[in-house]
UniProtKB/TrEMBL annotation:
Monomer. TRNA binds at residues 18, 74, 76, 122. The keyword Lyase does not apply. It comes from Marihabitans asiaticum. This is Peptidyl-tRNA hydrolase. Transmembrane segments: none annotated.
């Protein structure tokens, strides 16, 4: 593929046991992007489900060429499949977008950044290790902090609460929009839109 191809990876753990977990919200966003494009993610030899599609595109324009993927490995070894996908599709780290859950952002909010720390997120740590850099784009989907003294590791591996599930489609929509914006308009412009206060 040409060098203008983007790789958008939604992080999560494989299998039905985990699919409703907060930790899997990145994978949920990837599936929403595939749904919008009218495609299904298919098994890929890199150890992921993936599909080529066009992201965004308005007023009849085709949108950006992208591969959307969800690793089929466990979260803490996501880096291997993501690196393999980037190699297979000839995607540079400059055009790698990782969508993941973020404890330090309130539920329902989305934030964009390039690089920075992993905040204890094992998926990000694995990807940074595999690529030898932290300098890739992140779409950070807020899940909020655990209540009381609950261990964050337990919190992320639980399904969204009933009230959160009612709001979840809106959050996935916002995060999918954010992915399309960052690919179409670049990080700075996308941040101005996504980070703007909601009235």
């Amino acid at each position: 593929m040409s060098e203008d191809t983007w790789l958008v990876v939604g992080l999560g753990n494989p299998g039905p046991r985990y699919e409703g977990n907060r930790h899997n919200v990145g994978a949920m966003v990837a599936l929403e992007l595939a749904r919008r494009a009218g495609v299904s993610l298919r098994a890929h030899k890199a150890g992921a489900r993936a599909e080529s599609l066009r992201l965004g595109g308005a007023q009849g324009t085709p949108g950006a060429r992208a591969v959307v993927a969800v690793p089929t490995s466990y979260m803490n070894v996501s880096g291997g499949p993501v690196k393999a996908l980037a190699s297979f599709f000839s995607v540079s780290t400059e055009q790698l977008v990782v969508v993941h859950d973020e404890l330090d952002i309130p539920f329902g909010e989305v934030r964009l950044k390039r690089g920075g720390g992993e905040g204890g997120h094992n998926g990000l740590r694995s990807i940074s290790s595999s690529f030898g850099t932290k300098d890739y784009l992140r779409v950070r989907v807020g899940i909020g902090r655990p209540p009381g003294r609950m261990d964050p590791a337990d919190f992320v591996l639980r399904d969204f609460a009933k009230t959160e599930r009612e709001e979840l489609p809106f959050l996935l929509d916002t995060a999918a929009d954010a992915v399309e914006l960052v690919v179409e308009r670049g990080l700075t412009d996308a941040q101005q839109v996504v980070h703007a206060p909601r009235g």
